[in-house]
Design a protein that fits this description.
The complex is a heterodimer of chains A (about 525) and B (about 400). Chain A contains 18 helices and 19 strands. Chain A is of the alpha/beta class and about 525 residues long. In chain A, strands 7-6-15-16-17-14-18 form a seven-stranded mixed beta sheet, sandwiched between helices. A five-stranded parallel beta sheet of chain A has the order 9-2-1-13-19, with helices on one face. A three-stranded antiparallel beta sheet of chain A has the order 10-11-12, with no helix packed on it. Chain B is built from nine helices and 19 strands. Chain B has a six-stranded mixed beta sheet. Chain B has a six-stranded antiparallel barrel with strand order 14-17-16-15-18-19. A five-stranded antiparallel beta sheet of chain B has the order 5-6-7-4-8, covered by helices on one side. The chains are: A alpha/beta (about 525), B alpha+beta (about 400).
């Protein structure tokens, strides 16, 4: 009998979640992580002494509440602090801010447009209703509409009934949301340019699309899912950086009996008689288990670890066609002092939330134009947070760290990524931000620039896609990563997927890890010891 | 106009929300900011500064001070060393709790007692014939709670006392900002934290010094809304909410003994005498009729109730304090007295009085919830408190 019931490839937050749930059900689980630390892209690293960077992912929105409860993550040190505002500085010296307090937001919006202040509430209510309707899908193992089996049909029926609860008008809105561009959708509601731009930016994150590209409106809805939780205040910053999410899950997994090995890169899936039977490490070591779960993205899993002969051709083709197209990078800064924004000088609550460089839709679309033709955006969209203001432990007292999510930085940049282009990209980011906060350049003590190529090389994200594949409609739900293998199973019996390349997709949600565990436990009933 | 605390010149400036509540005849901030999230999270992740000056405070001095205290409270005061603080309830003759608070032994013959309601008369009555002086220092002593994981670092940076050596429920005198204060490692949050006791006249420099030192560590003034959630997570009782003082109870059924409040561990029946002892001896023999327990509302069940009306679960934005029936197998087995959604634990928690035979941890009960004006019952699990008990509290 093999020593393990299951091997999880990849110690990212989904792999760890999966392992924790399998261990919780009494299974003997081994997690194999290629790097020297777990977390994957959910990681905090002290790249510069004394300064902790959330190197990749930097906020938590949709981490599922049930995971926090089931795995008792609070006991294992998880604390998610609220991000209370979105601040958009403008080139004309004005700004737009949205706060956690409704009245404060309303009076700010009123200053820009009395009509928008009212529409904002109506819009919020509509998105809330739609998010309520869509959210259960996130907790569902996708049914397969191409199958006529009774079980799948039942799942579809349940889904249909669920959508009927929306009512005709909201259903029409949902359909429009699924098909429109985020800018078009928002322009139907609002007239304040920076409001439209900042809100539409949430539709482009992680995709190689612009705010005027159809299909981007839907991604905004994902952002409202966190809002549903109302008092949950799900949008937040984990104390200690995003790495503490992975650390808490890892601690829970270990406490539940899972074993974690770092510096253990998997080279190949071992298949015997068409079934997965274990993995071979790059070191040559072979470890056997009847269940192998991959937390890697679909391309790395199926095109990297599995022999082509073990997979059906049409599946391989679908995975080859699956779109990654990383479009974003990160710049992490260690700062000697806080940025001083021209439009809102001094320290204040506007530095405690997200700072969005998104003055207009044209600005964002131009940033996309650069990327379309193989350049990084000379003046990119940026989503900035200053973690040390929220959690002073991230930097030495009085100093700060700044996390800058940058789009666009195409993976397929003309001439390929190299050190010179990385630094030029970093310069473009800092210069653009310094137009709004001129003291920034002087305040920088250390700069880390992470390009899509770095995301691929260091963090194993194919083409640097932060979501393990774009969150666009053609690769969501029962199409993620490819039908009919959206239910965490794969064409190789015994091999499962639990990464962000499976439903419900990217972000620090834990959803794929959890749902895959449910699938595995159901498939291997009585498989515990 | 209600009275204001010695910190009012600072707190009134900081209180953007203008959200004040009455507390023992004083004006007390419910929240400082427009939304109180950051105040709550400061308690659990950084540090919060809470003005707790409205507490009643008594100095008890004299050769019979120990005797008086030992006579009144249920715990053994003789075992309370100088520099130690004990949490204790005290009872009336029928063994029903009148109040609860902390008792600090400042020297062999001197104590400081804190309480939630006035106790001067009770102390003086019990001191009849004893060589002891009881002084109400409520108005002349200001009190600040500095609570949260960073509290030690902040406090250490402004005072010379070795705080690493100051254990949980110990206290020490120390200069802070040039002012002589008492620092006790106590609090109402169940977290690492301290309470600082200072003469009212000298209160402001202490505030300023802590706020200045705390800036780099995320120190945040916090109000009672945040404190209320933290104390429920910590399973700490609130008089007039979770129990009725024996002095206030109009009918006997409203009173509670320490055994019924989960405070059996504070009752030292080995003592020769304390007020209420004989009643408590009898109760101890026959067993308490009630138990105070934690309830965790089961999420799936709550979600189902709301899904029936087409809503996601509607959770309370802050702690509630009202009596809510609890059922098992269709009959009423107790009542919850306060509860909240714990943003930290992502659990809906409550403190409840349960009939002894229905109070076993792990058992399933139902708690009443009002869903769209309809009374419904949500499944809940009986658990022991505290709900949250970080190692740093004692470390």
């Amino acid at each position: 009998m093999p020593p393990y019931d299951a091997i999880v490839i990849g110690g990212g937050h989904n792999g760890l979640t999966n392992a924790a749930y399998l261990a919780r059900a009494g299974r003997k689980v081994l997690v194999l992580e290629r790097r020297h630390l777990t977390g994957g892209s959910t990681v905090t690293e002290e790249v510069y002494p004394g300064f902790k960077y959330s190197v990749c992912s930097y906020v938590v929105s949709l981490l599922r509440q049930e995971i926090i409860r089931d795995l008792e993550l609070a006991r294992h040190g998880l604390e998610i602090l609220p991000l209370e505002s979105t601040f958009t500085p403008l080139p004309n010296g004005d700004h737009l801010a949205r706060w956690s307090d409704h009245d404060k937001t309303r009076s700010e919006l009123y200053r820009h447009s009395p009509r928008d202040a009212e529409a904002y509430d109506d819009f919020g209510r509509l998105m809330y209703r739609m998010a309520v309707a869509v959210k259960p899908i996130l907790s569902m193992i996708p049914p397969d509409p191409t199958s006529l089996s009774l079980k799948e049909l039942k799942g579809l029926l349940r889904l249909g009934r669920h959508f009927r609860s929306l009512g005709r008008k909201d259903f029409a809105s949902l359909y429009r949301l699924l098909t429109m561009s985020s800018a078009d959708y928002l322009e139907e509601w609002f007239e304040t340019e920076p409001l439209i731009a900042t809100m539409s930016a949430s539709g482009i994150i992680g995709t190689f699309l612009g705010p005027r590209s159809p299909g981007t409106a839907y991604v905004q809805l994902h952002h409202y899912m966190g809002e549903i939780d109302g008092v949950f205040r799900a949008w937040g910053f984990p104390r200690g950086g995003t790495g503490s999410v992975a650390n808490a899950i890892a601690a829970a997994a270990v406490r539940l009996g899972a074993e974690i090995r770092t510096n253990a890169a998997v080279g190949q899936l071992m298949v015997r008689n068409g079934r997965a039977v274990g993995v071979a490490l790059e070191s040559g070591e072979e470890i056997r288990a009847p269940v192998v779960v991959s937390g890697l993205d679909p391309k790395r899993t199926f095109l990297g670890l599995v022999d082509r002969e073990d997979l059906p051709d049409d599946f391989v083709l679908a995975i080859e066609r699956y779109r990654m197209r990383g479009s974003s990078g990160k710049v992490n800064l260690a700062l000697g002092e806080l940025p001083d924004f021209k439009c809102l000088p001094g320290a204040g609550p506007h530095l405690r939330g997200a700072i969005s460089i998104s003055p207009s839709v044209d600005y964002l679309e131009r940033a996309y134009d650069d990327a379309k033709y193989g350049q990084f955006s000379r003046r990119p969209f940026m989503d900035v947070i200053i973690p040390s203001v929220i959690d002073p432990g991230m930097a030495p007292a009085g100093s700060h760290v700044m996390s800058i999510f940058v789009q666009y930085a195409p993976y397929a940049i003309n001439g390929g990524w190299n050190d010179a282009r990385r630094e030029a990209f970093g310069d473009a980011v800092v210069s653009t931000l310094a137009e709004y906060a001129p003291n920034l350049k002087e305040a920088i003590l250390h700069r880390q620039v992470v390009t899509p190529a770095d995301l691929e090389d260091t963090y194993g994200l194919t083409e640097g896609n932060i979501f393990h594949g774009e969150l666009t409609l053609q690769q969501l739900f029962f199409l993620r990563p490819a039908t009919p293998w959206a239910n965490y199973r794969t064409p190789v019996p015994g091999l499962y997927q639990c990464g962000s390349g499976s439903h419900p997709g990217g972000g620090i949600t834990g959803g794929p890890g959890l749902l895959a565990a449910r699938r595995i436990l159901a498939d291997t009933k009585g498989g515990g010891r | 106009m209600l009275r204001v605390t010695p910190f009012h010149p600072r707190t009134s400036e900081l209180c953007q929300a203008r959200n004040w509540r009455r507390w023992a005849g004083y004006l007390a901030a419910e929240s400082y900011e427009l939304t109180f999230d950051r105040e709550y999270w400061a308690i659990r992740t950084a540090a919060a500064l809470i003005d707790v000056s409205p507490l009643y405070k008594y100095r008890i001095r004299g050769p019979d001070a120990e005797r008086l205290m030992d006579r009144i409270v249920t715990r053994d005061v003789r075992a309370c060393a100088v520099g130690q603080v004990i949490y204790t309830p005290w009872c009336d003759d029928s063994g029903k709790v009148m109040d609860d608070g902390t008792l600090a032994r400042l020297s062999e013959d001197s104590f400081r007692l804190t309480s939630a309601v006035p106790n001067l008369n009770w102390l003086v009555q019990n001191a009849l014939g004893m060589k002891v002086e009881v002084q109400d220092v409520s108005d002349t002593t200001a009190a600040l709670a500095l609570q949260g994981p960073s509290s030690r670092t902040i406090l250490q940076s402004v005072c010379d006392a070795d705080l690493n050596a100051l254990r949980f429920f110990r206290q020490t005198a120390a200069p802070l900002a040039g002012v002589q204060v008492f620092i006790s490692r106590t609090g109402y949050t169940g977290d690492l934290g301290y309470e600082i006791w200072v003469d009212s006249d000298l209160a402001l420099p202490v505030w300023d010094s802590l706020v200045g030192a705390g800036e780099a560590y995320g120190l945040q003034p916090a109000g009672l809304l945040a404190l209320d959630m933290a104390r429920i997570e910590a399973g700490l009782l609130l008089i007039a909410v979770d129990y009725v003082s024996a002095r206030e109870a109009l009918i006997e059924s409203r009173t509670s003994s320490p055994f019924e409040l989960g405070l059996g561990w504070t009752v030292d029946l080995g003592k020769d005498f304390f007020v209420g002892r004989s009643a408590l001896v009898r109760e101890h023999e026959r067993g308490a009729a009630w138990q105070l327990r934690g309830l965790e509302v089961q999420w799936d069940g709550l979600e189902r109730l709301y899904a029936q009306v087409g809503l996601p679960p509607q959770l309370p934005a802050h702690a509630w304090r009202s009596s809510v029936p609890v059922y098992a197998n269709g009959s009423e087995v107790g009542y919850a007295t306060s509860g909240c959604w714990s943003p930290l634990l992502k659990r809906y928690i409550a403190l409840a009085h349960l009939r002894n035979d229905r109070a076993a941890p792990g058992s399933e009960v139902q708690i009443e919830v009002t869903v769209e004006h309809q009374r419904r019952q949500a499944p809940a699990s009986v658990v022991t408190t505290p709900f949250f008990d970080p190692a740093r509290k004692r470390a």
